[in-house]
């Protein structure tokens, strides 16, 4: 496995694969990797001849009060994990390599689907994601790019600008990786105290309960109210508990497939999760 820190070095490493028309898979990350990230690499390995993973903590997607400076940077550990699951090239650029020394005057905004949910709580976040992911797509030029479904809104944003800008690749969403107790794997889980970590699985439990209630005939609003009550009783402070269509349109009735999305704070740690619930007519 190679590690490249410059765009030029990465291009040189990928040129033989491009010349041979090999299929290139790409997994963008901010490092501090866990099994969820490694699952993305495993999926990429199944479909692709060459797998590239980027490790870059992107400053422009962090808000003023967010944890850019404190975000864990664990490159050596990440490299070992990636080597073990079959990554071919790690791309670990500096901020200067990605953004240069001159002011950035170009922005990428996806309207509509970024106006609420995490977009409302984190203004500018998805613009920062769209810019860095577009830059990485241009640098790597993969055939496939792999993203986890835990960041459901982010995945929808990336699919949208890939379609709108005719970026020639296929975006593949990979199911959420979970601990045995159901907690969605996240780099932020490391911020939880022991007691908070014991409480956190209530998020997924509340989603599964809502799924059972919907299939038993409860209304969508009743199911969402149940989640809110359960999380509040467990001591979480909610940013949102919302139901959407798979395309993130608002929905009031369970008369088609639905995604329930949650963002909530447990102590100082903001956790997100979601569950896609199938609608069975009749």
UniProtKB/TrEMBL annotation:
GO biological process terms, semicolon-separated: pantothenate biosynthetic process
One MF annotation (Gene Ontology) recorded for this entry: pantoate-beta-alanine ligase activity
Gene Ontology CC annotation, any one: cytosol
UniProt-annotated location(s): Cytoplasm
Catalysed reaction, written as an equation: (R)-pantoate + beta-alanine + ATP = (R)-pantothenate + AMP + diphosphate + H(+)
General function of this protein: Catalyzes the condensation of pantoate with beta-alanine in an ATP-dependent reaction via a pantoyl-adenylate intermediate.
Protein name: Pantothenate synthetase
Species name: Acinetobacter variabilis
């Amino acid at each position: 496995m190679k590690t490249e820190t410059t765009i030029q070095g990465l291009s040189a490493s990928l040129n033989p694969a491009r010349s041979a028309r090999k299929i290139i898979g790409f997994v963008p990350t901010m490092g501090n990797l866990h099994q969820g990230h490694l699952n993305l690499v495993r999926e990429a390995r199944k479909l692709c001849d060459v797998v590239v993973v980027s490790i870059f903590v992107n400053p422009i997607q962090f808000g003023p009060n967010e944890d850019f400076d404190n975000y864990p940077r664990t490159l050596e550990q990440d490299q070992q994990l990636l080597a073990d699951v079959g990554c071919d090239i790690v791309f670990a650029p500096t901020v200067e390599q990605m953004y240069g020394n001159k002011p950035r005057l170009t922005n990428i905004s996806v309207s509509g689907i970024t106006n609420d949910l995490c977009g409302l709580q984190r203004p500018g976040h998805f613009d920062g994601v769209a810019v860095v992911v577009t830059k990485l797509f241009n640098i790597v030029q993969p055939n496939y790019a792999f993203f986890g479904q835990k960041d459901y809104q982010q995945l929808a944003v990336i699919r949208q600008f890939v379609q709108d800008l005719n970026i020639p690749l296929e975006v593949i969403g990979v199911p959420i990786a979970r601990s045995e107790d159901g907690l969605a794997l996240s780099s932020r889980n490391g911020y939880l105290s022991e007691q908070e970590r014991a409480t956190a699985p209530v998020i997924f439990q509340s989603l599964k309960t809502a799924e059972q209630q919907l299939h038993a005939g409860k209304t969508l609003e009743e199911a969402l109210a149940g989640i809110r009550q359960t999380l509040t009783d467990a001591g979480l402070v909610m940013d949102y508990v919302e139901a959407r269509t798979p395309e993130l349109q608002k929905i009031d009735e369970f008369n088609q497939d639905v995604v329930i999305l949650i963002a909530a704070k447990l102590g100082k740690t903001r956790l997100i999760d979601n569950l896609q619930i199938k609608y069975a007519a009749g």
